[in-house]
Amino acid sequence: MIEDTETIDEFLAQHTADVEEAVRRAAATEIMPRFRQLAAHEVDQKSGPHDLVTDADRDAERYLTKVLGALLPGSVVVGEEAVHADPETYEAIQGDAPVWIVDPVDGTRQFVRGETGFCTLVALVRHGELLASWTYAAARDQMATAVKGGGAFLDGARLRSGVPDPARDLEVATSHPDYTTDAQKRALLGLWADGVRTRPCGSAGLEYLAVARGELDATAFSWEAAWDHAAGLLLVQEAGGAHLTLTGEPFRITGGNALPFTAARDTATAQRVMELLRAS
């Protein structure tokens, strides 16, 4: 069992590249061979027609669960598909053990359509603290990584989110209407304001990467599922950005947040988005 933060730091210093290799291999062996090759029997619905799962999701998560658990003895894995099968496994995020949070295919709908806008997300968390993350867009061969206090990188190049251009509208990606309730849609209405341009989000992981790269000014999301947010929140944070909930506090990966919340290129932009959302 990992006993203290120093040991986690030592693990990351020695094995960050091993985690990256595991993510790449999961994509190479379980995801990409099925890209644009999916048979009908390899695609299922979960909660509805927009909530899809494929054999690639399941098999990639199984692969990562095995490899990541072996890399860090005493750790546990909380994966989207395992939680769907047994919701109680989500409670491990609240425990003392280091937790790998895994979304094997973030943007499954795009993956099923044969579009490149999907990625694999892995984050290492302990006691609710985001420690490291990996965001791999396999179809685009882009790997983004972040370690707490160590910065964010895309294919080895440092990421800096910068600040929005005050001369143009703020661009914000919001929860997709296909995945939101009427109440959640109403909670986002404050963003339909002068000086703001909104669009529905695609893969949450890739939207966070866009914020970290300074290509998107902010996100506004209305759900808490840790596998969608953990990797990207650390990426944005380490690139110089910020995240806030309706109460003005940072988003807690352990849950209980006042929603919706934002991740933005800088603190001022995060505060501006939250002011608009409070007016909804």
From TrEMBL:
Enzyme class, broadest EC rank: hydrolase
Pfam families cross-referenced by the UniProt entry: Inositol_P (PF00459)
Gene3D superfamilies: 3.40.190.80, Fructose-1,6-Bisphosphatase, subunit A, domain 1
InterPro entries referenced in this protein's UniProt entry, alphabetically: Inositol_monoP_metal-BS, Inositol_monophosphatase-like, Inositol_monophosphatase_CS
Keywords: Hydrolase, Magnesium, Metal-binding
Entry EC no(s): 3.1.3.25
Stretches of the chain forming a coiled coil according to its record: none
Catalytic activity: a myo-inositol phosphate + H2O = myo-inositol + phosphate
Name recorded for this polypeptide: inositol-phosphate phosphatase
Organism, as annotated: Streptomyces prunicolor
